[in-house]
Automatic annotation (TrEMBL):
Active-site residues, record numbering mapped to chain: K361
Compartments, record wording: Cytoplasm
One cellular-component annotation, GO: cytoplasm
Included range, full protein: 244 to 609 of 609
Provenance organism: Methanomethylovorans hollandica (strain DSM 15978 / NBRC 107637 / DMS1)
Keyword Cytoplasm: yes
EC number of this enzyme: 2.6.1.16
Subunit structure: Homodimer.
Top enzyme class: transferase
UniProt keyword list: Aminotransferase, Cytoplasm, Glutamine amidotransferase, Repeat, Transferase
The protein, known as: Glutamine--fructose-6-phosphate aminotransferase [isomerizing]
GO biological process entries: carbohydrate metabolic process; fructose 6-phosphate metabolic process; protein N-linked glycosylation; UDP-N-acetylglucosamine metabolic process
Length: 366
């Protein structure tokens, strides 16, 4: 049932060209620059008057939600908060009927996410869920359900469900942005065409995974790793660090690159590789400066960068490439690189990849 792969995680990483395509199938009408999202039970007037979105999730789904926050704000002009479910449920949120809450949960069974959504609904909020499991509890607790169509995920480390969550978030952001008049059909078209190129681009990364494997093996015995990125690449760095610590047991931290000098720089040395997510976009130059700061502390830098970026080679020790793409879509491709980095690191260390110690696939207790 692993279809010839040694682990479910590797199989699931390789299924992403299909899971991404299945998730957007039938929803993208790129010629009109339009997304059809019938599952989102909100009419155009409701979408236009929306003031605030609160996204609630845990773990990897939280990282997807953090990408979602940036997308909703940039493409749809809606103030969006991202909340950790276990904090939200015991917090004192200021909510009212105008707030739209969005749960992201692959399993649809995470106890904290369910409790947080129930609590938000007690304030009269409309709620939606992004989940991968038909018939899961969250589907009965929300007004709208948007399914990721990733198929069953067995590995404890979330991979294909994460990239599928990102696809749903792009579709929601584009849909809300066009309805609200914030996003022109031309820009929507450009991103939608880009989404349709993702399956082929992910396949390219998978076909060239040897460089990622070699890099993983080279650093497999370090004790600490840092991951840095800005804007959309900040949650990508969090996700890269989470994946690595979860399955390889190496201590890893994801950081907003601009935060380095507020503490973590003190920890850097030649013993701490830093993965810099440095894809092209409006923060690229700023990340380059952060890379220089890191190099000045003798840390080795592994950059995740676009295929056509030849400048980056001058500043870093290793470059892991992703195909050129729309700047907003790079998180999908960079995440696949980081999944493979985590996988091959754990493999080199002889870890139990599909069932890491102390972890369960779905966390149904607090
Ligand atoms: O099923 P959920 O998406 O609600 O699960 C949330 C987290 O438990 C989950 O993403 C966890 O962090 C993964 N094992 C990460 O790979």
């Amino acid at each position: 049932e692993k279809a010839g792969y040694e682990h479910f995680m590797l199989k699931e990483i390789h299924e992403q060209p299909t899971s991404i395509q299945d998730t957007y199938a039938g929803k993208i009408f790129e010629l009109e620059g339009k997304v059809i999202l019938d599952e989102l039970k909100m009419d155009e007037d409701q979408l236009r008057s929306l003031q605030r979105v609160t996204i609630i999730a845990c773990g990897t789904s939280w990282n997807a939600g953090c990408v979602g926050k940036y997308l909703f704000e940039r493409l749809a002009g809606i103030h969006t908060d991202i909340e950790t479910a276990s904090e939200f449920r015991y917090g004192e949120p200021v909510l009212c009927g105008q707030v739209f809450t969005l749960a992201i949960t692959q399993s649809g069974e995470t106890a904290d996410t369910l409790a947080a959504i129930r609590s938000s609904r007690s304030y009269g909020c409309k709620a939606a869920a992004i989940t991968n499991v038909v018939g899961s509890t969250i589907t009965r607790e929300t007004d709208s359900v948007l399914f990721t169509r990733a198929g069953p995920e067995i590995g404890v480390a979330a991979t294909k469900t994460f990239t599928a969550q990102l696809i749903v978030l792009y579709l929601m952001a584009i849909h809300m942005g066009t309805v609200r008049g914030r996003l022109s059909p031309e820009t929507a078209r450009e991103i939608l065409v880009g989404i349709k190129q993702l399956p082929g681009q992910v396949q390219k990364i998978l076909n060239n995974k040897d460089a990622i494997k070699a890099c993983a093996e080279h650093y497999a015995n370090v004790q600490d790793y840092f991951f840095i990125g800005r804007h959309l690449n900040y949650p990508v760095s969090l996700e890269g660090a989470l994946k690595l610590k979860e399955i390889s047991y190496i201590h890893a931290e994801g950081y907003a690159a601009g935060e380095l000098k507020h503490g973590p720089l003190a920890l850097l040395s030649s013993e701490t590789p830093v993965v810099a997510i440095a894809t092209k976009g409006h923060t690229y130059d700023k990340v380059l400066s952060n890379i220089k700061e890191v190099k000045a502390r003798s840390a080795e830098v592994i950059a995740v960068a676009n295929q056509s970026d030849t400048e980056i080679d001058k500043y870093v020790d290793t470059v892991l490439r992703i195909p050129d793409c729309h700047e907003l879509l790079a998180p999908v491709l960079s995440s696949v690189v980081l999944q493979l980095l985590a996988y091959y690191t754990a493999y080199a260390r002889g870890c139990s990849i599909d069932k890491p110690r102390n972890l369960a696939k779905s966390v149904t207790v607090e």
